[in-house]
Specification:
Layout (H helix, E strand, L loop, with lengths): L1 E3 L12 E5 L13 E9 L5 E9 L4 E8 L7 E5 L7 H12 L3 E7 L7 E4 L1 E2 L2
Antiparallel strand pairs: 1-4, 2-3, 2-9, 3-4, 5-6, 5-7, 7-8
Length: 126
């Protein structure tokens, strides 16, 4: 499964943020072989647009892909559902700031794990 923003993500573009998604990052940990990778690239003069791509291996029955504000090994609030990506532009600016501070993560929820099956902290690659 691959989830992408409305503007098609181009793998050749410079990636600014990334998260490796595993069950070990969930709170509490989940024992699973399922994995994923999320990459993000802020766009626009004020970082008011965010392109992203999520690739997930080994999972089915996915309900949501969410972006949370939170540090490693702690739960945080949902700030965007990545399936819809209807976050207002001014909130995207704040989100990019949290990504720069490595205080955001991606969480994948399934029918069997409604609080999350795999998760990954977003890392600043700049």
């Amino acid at each position: 499964m691959q989830v992408s923003s409305r503007a098609e993500y181009n793998d050749s573009e410079d990636v600014r943020f990334a998260a490796i998604l595993t069950g070990k990052e969930e709170v509490p940990e989940i024992d699973t072989y399922d994995t994923g990778l999320a990459v993000f690239q802020p766009k626009g003069s004020n970082n008011n647009n965010l392109k992203f791509s999520i690739k997930i291996a080994g999972m089915d029955k996915i309900k949501k892909a969410c972006l949370h504000i939170g540090k490693p090994h702690e739960d945080g609030e949902v700030v965007a559902e990545l399936y819809k990506s209807e976050t207002p532009q001014d909130e995207v600016n704040d989100l990019v700031t949290k990504m720069e501070q490595e205080e955001a993560y991606v969480n994948i929820l399934t029918e069997d794990n409604p609080k999350g099956k795999i998760r990954g902290q977003i890392t600043n690659l700049a």
